[in-house]
C-alpha cells in the first residue's frame, strides 16, 4: 500500500471516529480554536524561559523580503541546542532540508503515521504520540499549521503550537537540522524528502531547551502537549481482558490517543540507603516513566528510572516486541471472521513501533517468521477462535477476515513497524496502556449506547509548593504502610542468613527504619501547609442510578523537563481528597489537627515521579477538599490542577480571604509611641511644638527626619545602625498619599502607629533576637499585625522579601507589612465602586471575593496595565479581585 492509499485510509478512519463522536455529543476538552495563542517567551504564556518573543509572520516576511533565510538566535545551530550533559560521540553538521534533498517538501502526499522514524535519541514516547496525532487531522493542523512549507514564501522559518499548562504556546524555529554524513541524526520520515516530522521535533526540543531534554518520557506527556487533553494510565496486570476491551473501544471511538509499553522484567523494588525517609522507590525502563506497581508500595512513593542493564534496555524479545519502548495504538476494532468451526468477531489492536521496523511475530502479525507463543489464559471474548493455528506463516488468520475489512484497516505485509495483534496477546505482552482523552466522555464500563450526550465541566487552578510555606510533603502515611516498612525491615534482616549474622548491618537497617518513622511523623505535622482546593459537587451523574458524581482530578507539575539542564528532576507528586461534612465550621485552611482526625475518601497514591498524575473517582454530592503535595516536605515546584466532572462543579482555593483582621492582643504598644496618637485637630500646643521640632517650620517630615525620629524612639531589631535609607524612603513613599515627597502630621501619625505595631509583632516571633524571622512564622506574624493572607500571597511575599536562608529580616518585614497594608487599603478604598461579579475566567464558582471595577483613565492605565482589559459598552474597565490586585502589586 503506497502513502496515498494510507492517507486515504487514515481519512476514512478519522471521519468514522468524528461522526461517531459527534453523534454522541462529544465535547473536546481543549482546542486551539477560539482561545488565545501565546508566543514562547511571553510573560503571560505561563512558561519559564529566557527566550525573546518571536512573531512567526513578522519574521518570515522580514527574512523573505531580505532574501536571507531565517536563523534562530534563540535556538542556535550549536552543540548547546543538542545537549546539556551528554556530548554526542559524533561531529554534528547542521543542514537545511534543501541541502539534504533537492526536492525537499514539508509534506509528501499529506501527513501519515509512517512519516515518523526514530533517530539516535530515546524519544520514542514523543514519536509514538506524534504518530497518533496524524490520525486526527483537526488537531494535527492546530499543532502543525498548514500555512508553511518550501514553496511559497519559504524563508527557512516554521512555527508549531503546543499546549503548556493550560495555555497554547507558539514556538518558532529555523529549519537547520542536525546531520551526520549528510543524513538526519534524529527523527526522519520514511520519505527521504519529507521534513515536517524532523522540524516538528526541533520545535519540541526548543520548547524544552535541547534535544537531550527529550530523552525519556511518557507517551501521555507528549499527547497532552499536542492536544490539551487529560491522561489516564492503566496497569494491564490489574484489569481483565473484557474490561480492557471496553475501555479501548470507547477511547478509540471518541478519538482518544493511546500508547503502550512493556516494563522490564527485572524492575527493582528496594528500601535503599538513599531512601532515608522510608520512601519506596521503583526504578525501571528506558522510557523513564513506566510504572511498576508493587504490593508493598500501596501508600508509598514510586520512582522510575533506568536500572536495567544495557542489554535489556530496548532489547527485542523473541516475539518481536521491544522492552522499555513506547508504541502507538493506531486502531482498535472488532473484526468479523468465519472459519469452518466458528464465526463471530475478534478484537484486534493495531500498533506501530516508532523505529519504523521490528514488528510483532505472533498471531495476526504481517510477518513471515514462525513463532510459538507462550501459553496464556484465554479471554472469554475470544474463546470461540481458540482453535486458530499458533504456528504462523504470514499470519494465516487473516484468511478468515473479509477482504473489505482488511482493505479498510490498511493491512499490509511490509516491515514498516506497524502490525496487528489480538487482544489476548496485547494484554499478556504489554504492561501499561496510556490514554489521552481528547473528549471528556466517560471511559467506564457502561455500554456506548447507554452513555447518551454528556458534557464534562472543567476547573483549573495554578499553584506552587514553596519551601517552609506551602511545600508540606505528603505526610499521610497509614498504619498499613508502617507495617509494610516493618515487613521490609524484617525481610532485609531475616531474608538473608549472612545479614542476620552481621550485627552492624542489622543495626544500620533498624536505625534507617526508625528514621523513616520519625520523618513520617514530622511530615504529618506539615501536610496541612500544602495548597488546598475546595470543590463543591451539587448534582449526581445523570442516568447512573447510584446518586454519585464522577470526577477526574489531574495534577501536573510545571517546567520540570525544561529545567533538567539545571539539575532539577521530576518530583514525586500526588493528592488526597477529604470530605467536609460541615463546610461552614471547617477551618480555612484545613489545620494539622483536622487532617490528623480525618481520613481521605480518595487519593492518587502511590506518589510517583511523573509530570502528571490522575485519579478518577465517584463521590456522593457534597463538599470536598483536594490537597496536592510532593512526597517529601520542602520540595519546591509549580503545578496546575484540573478537575473534570460530568455535572457542574464549583472550585476555589480553600484559604483565608485576603483583608484586614483584628490585631493580636499580645502586641502591646510602646509607651513612647503614644506621643503622637491623636488627631491633628486635637493636638495640644505641647504636641505641636514637639512635632515642629522634628518636622521643622513646614510641619512635614522628610525621609531624613523620619529616620531620626524612628532611630530615637524605636530601635530596629538586630541592627545598631538604625533604620536604613532604603527603609525610610520606602516607608515615606508608600504613605505619601498626596505625593508631596514628605509626610504630613496625619500621614506620619498613621505610619508611626503602624511601625510601632509591626515592631512589637516582630519581637513576638523573633524569639532568638537574631533580627530575622523564619518564613514558617510569616503568616502568623502578619495575622498578629492585623492582616489575613492566603498561601498565594504568602508565596509572593516570601519570594519578594525572603533571603536565601528562607528567613525575613526586620527591615524586609517592615517593607512587606507596609506594602501589604497600603495595597489592601487602596483596594478597599474603591469599595463604593464594587462590582459583585465573580471571576468569569478559569475558576467558575460561587462569589467568594468582591471584585472592583475601575474606569480606565491615563493614570490608572500606567499603573494597572498588567490587568485584563474588559470592554463594557462604550467605556473600558478593569475588573479584578482582591487576590488578583495583590498578586500584581506586591511583587513590583
Q: Give the integer mean of the pLDDT values.
A: 76
CATH topology of the largest domain, by name, is Jelly Rolls
Question: Which CATH class of the largest domain applies here?
Answer: Mainly Beta
Task: Give the biggest beta sheet.
Answer: 6 strands, antiparallel
SS summary, helix count: 24
- Overall shape: it is globular
Helix content: 25-40%
The number of domains is: 5
Distance between the termini: 62 Å
Strand order of the largest sheet: 7-15-8-12-13-14
Low-pLDDT runs of 5+ residues are 14-34, 265-299, 304-311, 368-393, 440-453, 671-679, 830-875
Description:
By secondary structure, this protein is of the alpha+beta class. Helix content is 29%, strand content 20%. The chain has a six-stranded antiparallel sheet. Strands 20-19-23-17-25 form a five-stranded antiparallel sheet, with no helix packed on it. A four-stranded antiparallel sheet has the order 16-24-18-22, with no helix packed on it. A hairpin with a 2-residue loop joins strand 3 and strand 4. The two termini are 62 Å apart. Residues 14-34, 265-299, 304-311, 368-393, 440-453, 671-679 and 830-875 have low confidence and may be disordered.
In brief:
By secondary structure, this protein is α+β, with helices and mostly antiparallel strands.
What's the topology here?
Elements lengths: L2 H21 L13 E3 L16 H11 L26 E3 L1 H4 L23 H10 L3 H7 L13 E8 L2 E8 L2 E4 L2 E2 L11 H13 L10 H9 L2 E6 L5 H13 L3 E5 L6 E3 L10 E3 L17 E2 L23 E13 L4 E10 L50 H6 L9 E5 H7 L2 E6 L10 H4 L5 E9 L13 H16 L2 H5 L1 H24 L6 E5 L11 E10 L14 E7 L12 H5 L5 E2 L3 E2 L3 E8 L2 E9 L6 E9 L3 E5 L5 E2 L24 H11 L7 H11 L11 H11 L9 H21 L6 E3 L3 H7 L2 E2 L2 H11 L5 E3 H20 L4 E2 L15 E5 L2 H6 L5 E4 L2 E7 H8 L3
Parallel strand pairs: 1-4, 11-21
Antiparallel strand pairs: 2-5, 3-4, 5-6, 7-15, 8-12, 8-15, 9-10, 12-13, 13-14, 16-24, 17-23, 17-25, 18-22, 18-24, 19-20, 19-23, 26-28, 27-29, 30-31, 31-33, 32-33
Helix pairs in contact: 4-7, 12-14, 17-18, 18-22, 19-22, 22-24
InterPro entries: C2_III, Calpain_cysteine_protease, Calpain_domain_III, Calpain_III, Calpain_III_sf, EF-hand-dom_pair, EF_Hand_1_Ca_BS, EF_hand_dom
GO cellular component, one term: cytoplasm
Keywords: Calcium, Hydrolase, Metal-binding, Protease, Repeat, Thiol protease
Amino acid at each position: 500500500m503506497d502513502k496515498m492509499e494510507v492517507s486515504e485510509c487514515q481519512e476514512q478512519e478519522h471521519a468514522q471516529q468524528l461522526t461517531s463522536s459527534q453523534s454522541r455529543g462529544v465535547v473536546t476538552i481543549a482546542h486551539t480554536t477560539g482561545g488565545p495563542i501565546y508566543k514562547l517567551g511571553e510573560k503571560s504564556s505561563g512558561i519559564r524561559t529566557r527566550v525573546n518573543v518571536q512573531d512567526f509572520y513578522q519574521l518570515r516576511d522580514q527574512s523573505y523580503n531580505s532574501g536571507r533565510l531565517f536563523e534562530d538566535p534563540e535556538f542556535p545551530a550549536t552543540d548547546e541546542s543538542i545537549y546539556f550533559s551528554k556530548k554526542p560521540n559524533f561531529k554534528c553538521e547542521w543542514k537545511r532540508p534543501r541541502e539534504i534533498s533537492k526536492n525537499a517538501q514539508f509534506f509528501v502526499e499529506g501527513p501519515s503515521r509512517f512519516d515518523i522514524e526514530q533517530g539516535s535519541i530515546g524519544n520514542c514516547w514523543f514519536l509514538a504520540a506524534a504518530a497518533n496525532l496524524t490520525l486526527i487531522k483537526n488537531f494535527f493542523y492546530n499543532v502543525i499549521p498548514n500555512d508553511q512549507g518550501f514553496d511559497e514564501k519559504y524563508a527557512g522559518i516554521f512555527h508549531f503550537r503546543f499546549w503548556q499548562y493550560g495555555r497554547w504556546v507558539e514556538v518558532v524555529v529555523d529549519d537547520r537540522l542536525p546531520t551526520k554524513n549528510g543524513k538526519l541524526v534524529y527523527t526522519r520520515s520514511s520519505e527521504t524528502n519529507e521534513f515536517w516530522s524532523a522540524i516538528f521535533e526541533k520545535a519540541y526540543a526548543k520548547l524544552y531547551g535541547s534535544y537531550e531534554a527529550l530523552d525519556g518520557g511518557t507517551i501521555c506527556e507528549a499527547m497532552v502537549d499536542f492536544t490539551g487533553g487529560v491522561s489516564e494510565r492503566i496497569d494491564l496486570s490489574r484489569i481483565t481482558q473484557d474490561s480492557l476491551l471496553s475501555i479501548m473501544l470507547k477511547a478509540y471511538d471518541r478519538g482518544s490517543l493511546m500508547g503502550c509499553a512493556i516494563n522490564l522484567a527485572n524492575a527493582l523494588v528496594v528500601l535503599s540507603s538513599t531512601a532515608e525517609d522510608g520512601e519506596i522507590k521503583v526504578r525501571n525502563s528506558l522510557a523513564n516513566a513506566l510504572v511498576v506497581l508493587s504490593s508493598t508500595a500501596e501508600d508509598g512513593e514510586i520512582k522510575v528510572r533506568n536500572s536495567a542493564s544495557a542489554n535489556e534496555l530496548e532489547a527485542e524479545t523473541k516475539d518481536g516486541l521491544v522492552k522499555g519502548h513506547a508504541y502507538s495504538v493506531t486502531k482498535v476494532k472488532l473484526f468479523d471472521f468465519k472459519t469452518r468451526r466458528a464465526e463471530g468477531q475478534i478484537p484486534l489492536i493495531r500498533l506501530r513501533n516508532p523505529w519504523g521496523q521490528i514488528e510483532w511475530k505472533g498471531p495476526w502479525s504481517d510477518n513471515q517468521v514462525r513463532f510459538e507463543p507462550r501459553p496464556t489464559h484465554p479471554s472469554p471474548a475470544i474463546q470461540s477462535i481458540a482453535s486458530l493455528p499458533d504456528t504462523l506463516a504470514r499470519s494465516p488468520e487473516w484468511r478468515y477476515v473479509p477482504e473489505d475489512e482488511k482493505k479498510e484497516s490498511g493491512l499490509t505485509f511490509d516491515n514498516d513497524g506497524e502490525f496487528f495483534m489480538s487482544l489476548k496477546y496485547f494484554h499478556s505482552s504489554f504492561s501499561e496502556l496510556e490514554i489521552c482523552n481528547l473528549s471528556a466522555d466517560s471511559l467506564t464500563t457502561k455500554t456506548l449506547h447507554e452513555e447518551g450526550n454528556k458534557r464534562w465541566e472543567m476547573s483549573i487552578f495554578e499553584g506552587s509548593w514553596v519551601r517552609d510555606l506551602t511545600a508540606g510533603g505528603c505526610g499521610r502515611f497509614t498504619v498499613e504502610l508502617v507495617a509494610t516498612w516493618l515487613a521490609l525491615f524484617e525481610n532485609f534482616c531475616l531474608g538473608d542468613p549472612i545479614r542476620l549474622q552481621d550485627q552492624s548491618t542489622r543495626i544500620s537497617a533498624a536505625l534507617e527504619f526508625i528514621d523513616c518513622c520519625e520523618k513520617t511523623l514530622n511530615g504529618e505535622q506539615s501536610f496541612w501547609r500544602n495548597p488546598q482546593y475546595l470543590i463543591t459537587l451539587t448534582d449526581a451523574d445523570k442516568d447512573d442510578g447510584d446518586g454519585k458524581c464522577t470526577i477526574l482530578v489531574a495534577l501536573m507539575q510545571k517546567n520540570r523537563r525544561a529545567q533538567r539542564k539545571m539539575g532539577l528532576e521530576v518530583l514525586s507528586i500526588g493528592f488526597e481528597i477529604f470530605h467536609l461534612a460541615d463546610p461552614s465550621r471547617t477551618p480555612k485552611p484545613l489545620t494539622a489537627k483536622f487532617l490528623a482526625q480525618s481520613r481521605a475518601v480518595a487519593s492518587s497514591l502511590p506518589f510517583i515521579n511523573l509530570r502528571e498524575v490522575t485519579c478518577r473517582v465517584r463521590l456522593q454530592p457534597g463538599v470536598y477538599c483536594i490537597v496536592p503535595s510532593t512526597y517529601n516536605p520542602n520540595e519546591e515546584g509549580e503545578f496546575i490542577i484540573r478537575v473534570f466532572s460530568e455535572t457542574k462543579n464549583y472550585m476555589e482555593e480553600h484559604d483565608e480571604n485576603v483583608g484586614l483582621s483584628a490585631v493580636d492582643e499580645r502586641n502591646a504598644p510602646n509607651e513612647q509611641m503614644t506621643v503622637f496618637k491623636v488627631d491633628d485637630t486635637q493636638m495640644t500646643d505641647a504636641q505641636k511644638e514637639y512635632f515642629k521640632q522634628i518636622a521643622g517650620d513646614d510641619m512635614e517630615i522628610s525621609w531624613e527626619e523620619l529616620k531620626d525620629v524612628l532611630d530615637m524612639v524605636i530601635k530596629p531589631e538586630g541592627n545598631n545602625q538604625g533604620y536604613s535609607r532604603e527603609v525610610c524612603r520606602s516607608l515615606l513613599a508608600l504613605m505619601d498619599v498626596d505625593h508631596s515627597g514628605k509626610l504630613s502630621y496625619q500621614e506620619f501619625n498613621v505610619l508611626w502607629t503602624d511601625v510601632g505595631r509591626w515592631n512589637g509583632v516582630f519581637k513576638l516571633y523573633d524569639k532568638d533576637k537574631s533580627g530575622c524571622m523564619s518564613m514558617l512564622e510569616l503568616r502568623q506574624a502578619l495575622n498578629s499585625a492585623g492582616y489575613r493572607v492566603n498561601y498565594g500571597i504568602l508565596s509572593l511575599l516570601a519570594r519578594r522579601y525572603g533571603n536565601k536562608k528562607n528567613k525575613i529580616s526586620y527591615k524586609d518585614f517592615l517593607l512587606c507589612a507596609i506594602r501589604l497594608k497600603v495595597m489592601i487599603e487602596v483596594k478597599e478604598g474603591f469599595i463604593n465602586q464594587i462590582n459583585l461579579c465573580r471571576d468569569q475566567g478559569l475558576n467558575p464558582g460561587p462569589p467568594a471575593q468582591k471584585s472592583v471595577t475601575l474606569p480606565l483613565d491615563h493614570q490608572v492605565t500606567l499603573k494597572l496595565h498588567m490587568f485584563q482589559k474588559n470592554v463594557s459598552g462604550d467605556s473600558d474597565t478593569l475588573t479584578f479581585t482582591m487576590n488578583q490586585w495583590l498578586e500584581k502589586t506586591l511583587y513590583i
